[in-house]
Structures are given as C-alpha cells and as structure tokens.
From TrEMBL:
Keywords, comma-separated and alphabetical: Membrane, Signal, Transmembrane, Transmembrane helix
SUPFAM superfamilies: Thioredoxin-like
Protein name, UniProt field: Glutaredoxin domain-containing protein
InterPro entries referenced in this protein's UniProt entry, alphabetically: Glutaredoxin (IPR002109), Thioredoxin-like_sf (IPR036249)
Species this protein is from: Streptomyces triticiradicis
Annotated spans, Disordered: 126-145
Bilayer-crossing regions: 30-50
One Pfam family recorded for the sequence: Glutaredoxin
Signal peptide extent: 1-19
Key word Ribonucleoprotein present: no
Taxonomy of the source species: Bacteria, Bacillati, Actinomycetota, Actinomycetes, Kitasatosporales
Glutaredoxin domain location: 70-127
Transmembrane keyword on record: yes
Amino acid sequence: MTRTWTLPTLFVLCGSVVAAGPAIGGSPGEAAAILLVFSLLAAVNSPLVFPRSIGAPEARRRSATDGRPVVYWRPGCAYCLRLRFRLGRSARRSHWVNIWRDPAGAAAVREANGGDETVPTVVVAGRPHTNPDPEWVRGQLPPST
C-alpha cells in the first residue's frame, strides 16, 4: 500500500520544498505555480487516475466470465499511463490489477515476462501481451453497454 503512494508523496514533498524558496522570497504566485505543477505530477502518478484495482484471482475469474482483458499495471509507469490515457473512458471495460498491491498479480506478470515485472501486461483470452499498442487493446475490449 505505501509503495503505491511513495512517488506521489515525494512529488508533493519536493514541490513544497522547492516552492518554499519563492514563498519566503516574497513571490507567492511563483510558489503557487511550482506547487501546482508538482501536485499535478503527483496526481498523474497516483493510483487515482486508474480504474479501481482488483486482485489477480478475481480479475482472472471475472475475465473468464465476461471476456474482458486483464491489465496488470503499477503506479509511476509511463507506459501504463500512456495506455490508461489512450483508452480513455473505455479503460473501465477491462479489469485492472495493481502489481504493487497484489502479490499474485506481480507473480502473474513475472511468469508472463520471464521473471521481469514488465508492465503494462495485458492478458486477453489467457494470452499475455507485454506493453501492447493501446489501439490494439481498445479493439480487444467488449462493446460498451
């Protein structure tokens, strides 16, 4: 749980330290802008921009039932962010597993990638695909209801 929030927390803390200089120096506008930039970086790298994560066993069970892909991801991963943003609202039509919060998910990713925790790893119909093209993933999603 704490590893998931380490990077966003560091962004906020670093932003506060960097913004303290202009704030003390009499430039509150500059300090606010710096803090805003660091806060946005923290938000983008937090788990809040991803759909709600579930455990790997539950994701596999649901995927077997509804045919939706399982996306294994971790906070701070630029490729995971790219996939998430390129999928847009349709990202909710897949099952997301945060490998930093779910040891079974991390194990599934290592098994699929020769021992490496390379994400995003998308499992469609039981076959893993490492860092697939977001448009390909969109094509694997079931139609919206």
